Task: inverse folding
């Protein structure tokens, strides 16, 4: 059993980063996630593991610091909240294009614009559909607890290096701020220089005489060459789809209806299930854990066994598009959402199920 | 007949007076004939070779005409997004303190879109070298106005000349960053004559020697021509540069060993 602690979601991310052997964190303050950098600075990771922590002048700078660090094979991460993540989009696209691993954490707040500092899930499209320019995808993980905030840091780094692609944790202000019991994994030592060079032969680490020089770039001016880059990326995303889909089902065995929800909404739906079942409504929960790649096949299979699906999100209807693409066109799929920082209550979710799916 | 030198003789080691450094890849440069970029590439690579630090150096190229610098420099390199090279270099140097790190940037890259990254990297006193090619124009995108375009100077987006009342003033970013405590060596050089080339080379050497001692930023501006963007022949462009660019951007050291050089000594003595 690992060390147990009571922590905020944001603190769990920071502690997990140190324990995962992260080499560098670069970030810019924004509510509701500033505790991540604050925790890191207070912990003196430079003394604990040699990890570098730097407050950048903007999110534009942080993401490009990640590009620099990742291009040399280092394990680097940043965190921010919605407006800051928007500012990073050019850099994220460059990193996807240059096939660089990194971990990005978005503790989402309500938008658009400066919006609110309250929790939201309105950045689903941005995270899952690309966000920046060009055809690229990230691995997007959606934690629903402080424990998963911790565990997905480690998992995110592993997947980003396995596939040489940015990994993204799509969380929200409530999970970032709430305190729960966490079982921390044992610290993994940071890689030595020799280990890094062995793991990342593609990285620009300084050219020894006996190898070609390494160029990290997302540029190929020749259209045929750039098409090859795109085909390579798409082939990689296909493999990710085959191997990395993660999801959870709760009380689905006898379910006549299901909620589909991720992150905080999935937590709320669990409570809604209890309330609904007391009323005799057999409802379960399908929770996508990887939003990209999306669990299309398992959701499609499950949908065949139920009468209706209510997609619950803290946005105006984003993941519902992927749900519809996963199920038969005859399947009844409706959306219930609150937005702008409002969290739906379990009762209103049950009421929506009764109105939109059962009664509708 | 006996003392006639043959082609074979010329190639003998003892007769060699100049040789391309192996750190420049043997392929044609993408630059217009007469452009200063290629000369700076050579000086930079010769410096690394002479210091024998090429295997410990990581370079960052910009977006601009020198975007493909990584194809010509036979060292490990990263191509940054437009303006962001100092952010990349900051992380690289902090994560690899034993490596030598440099950025190579144009004036649009360094002094317009990347101003924040430039100033903050300089102000933090990061330990890398910045090489700044100031040709007063956006060469790569076809000769648009740059932050460094002179008052009255024509470009494709200031076709009647830069009107400072509506288009703003040229930015002397080099003087600006020299004021910051994080910069240690700030100098302005040129590469249009052999004499200037030698001085630029010396400045590069000094900059990388500084980096060995972790002194903070060494910043080398090279005022250079863009004969294509300026719509001149290479010879005309060098003359125009001497007559117009140098009075506004005077050559010489601005800050040495962390100390600002008094104003009257700044202008280069010919
Ligand atoms: C975000 C972004 N904006 C604009 C461009 C287009 N662009 C490419 S190079 C360049 C200007 C380059 O000028 P400079 O830095 O002076 O370099 P030079 O070509 O003169 O050496 C611009 C505007 C870009 N690549 N990326
Ligand atoms: S456009 Fe100007 S800066 Fe670019 S290669 Fe040609 S002369 Fe040089
Ligand atoms: Mg220029």
Result:
């Amino acid at each position: 059993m690992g060390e147990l602690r009571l922590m905020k979601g944001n603190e769990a991310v920071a502690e997990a980063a140190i324990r995962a052997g992260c080499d560098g964190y670069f970030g810019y303050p924004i509510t509701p996630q500033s505790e991540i950098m604050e925790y890191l600075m207070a912990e003196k990771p430079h003394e604990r593991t040699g990890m570098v922590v730097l407050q950048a002048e903007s999110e534009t700078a942080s993401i490009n610091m990640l590009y620099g660090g990742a291009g040399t094979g280092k394990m680097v991460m940043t965190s921010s909240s919605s407006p800051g993540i928007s500012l990073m989009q050019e850099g994220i696209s460059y990193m996807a294009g240059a096939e660089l691993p990194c971990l990005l954490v978005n503790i989402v707040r309500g938008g658009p614009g400066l919006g609110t500092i309250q929790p939201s899930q309105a950045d689903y499209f941005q995270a899952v559909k690309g966000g920046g320019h060009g055809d690229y995808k990230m691995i997007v993980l959606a934690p629903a607890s402080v424990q998963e905030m911790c565990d997905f840091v480690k998992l995110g780094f592993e997947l980003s290096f396995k596939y040489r692609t940015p990994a993204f944790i799509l969380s929200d202000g409530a999970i970032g701020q709430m305190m729960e019991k966490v079982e921390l994994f044992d610290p993994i030592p940071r890689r030595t220089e020799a280990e890094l060079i062995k793991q990342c032969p593609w990285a620009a680490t300084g050219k020894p005489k006996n190898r070609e020089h390494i160029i990290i770039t997302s540029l190929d001016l020749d259209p045929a060459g750039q098409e090859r880059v795109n085909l390579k990326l798409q082939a990689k995303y296909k493999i990710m789809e085959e191997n990395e889909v993660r999801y959870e089902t709760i009380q689905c065995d006898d379910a006549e209806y299901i909620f589909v929800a991720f992150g905080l909404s999935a937590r709320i739906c669990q409570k809604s299930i209890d309330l609904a079942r007391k009323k005799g409504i057999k409802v379960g929960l399908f929770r996508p854990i990887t939003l990209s790649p999306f669990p299309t096949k398992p959701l499609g299979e499950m949908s065949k066994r139920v009468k209706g699906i209510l997609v619950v999100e803290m946005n105006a209807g984003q993941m519902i598009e992927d749900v519809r693409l996963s199920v038969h066109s005859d399947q009844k799929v409706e959306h219930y959402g609150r937005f702008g920082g409002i969290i739906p209550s379990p009762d209103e979710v049950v009421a929506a199920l009764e109105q939109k799916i059962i009664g509708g | 007949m006996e003392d006639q030198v043959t082609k074979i003789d010329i190639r003998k080691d003892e007769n060699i007076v100049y040789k391309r450094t192996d750190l420049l890849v043997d392929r044609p440069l993408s630059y217009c004939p007469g452009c200063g970029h290629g000369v700076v590439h050579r000086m930079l690579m010769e410096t690394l070779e002479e210091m024998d630090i090429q295997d410990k150096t990581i370079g960052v190229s910009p977006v601009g005409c020198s975007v493909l610098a990584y194809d010509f420099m036979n060292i490990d390199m990263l191509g940054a997004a437009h303006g962001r090279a100092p952010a990349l270099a900051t992380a690289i140097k902090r994560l690899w303190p034993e490596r030598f790190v440099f950025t190579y940037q144009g004036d649009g890259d360094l002094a317009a879109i990347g101003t924040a990254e430039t100033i903050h990297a300089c102000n933090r006193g990061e330990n890398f070298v910045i090489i700044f090619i100031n040709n007063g124009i956006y060469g790569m995108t076809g000769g648009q106005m740059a932050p460094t375009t002179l008052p009255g100077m024509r470009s494709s987006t200031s076709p009647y000349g830069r009107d400072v009342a509506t288009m703003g003033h040229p930015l002397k970013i080099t003087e600006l960053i020299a004021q910051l405590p994080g910069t240690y060596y700030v100098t302005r050089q040129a590469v249009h004559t052999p004499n200037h080339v030698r001085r630029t080379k010396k400045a590069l050497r000094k900059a990388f020697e500084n980096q060995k001692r972790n002194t903070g930023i060494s910043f080398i501006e090279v005022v250079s021509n863009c004969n294509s963007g300026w719509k001149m022949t290479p010879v005309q462009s060098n003359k125009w540069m001497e007559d117009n660019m140098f009075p506004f951007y005077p050559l010489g050291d601005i800050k040495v060993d962390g100390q600002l050089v008094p104003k009257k000594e700044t202008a280069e003595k010919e």
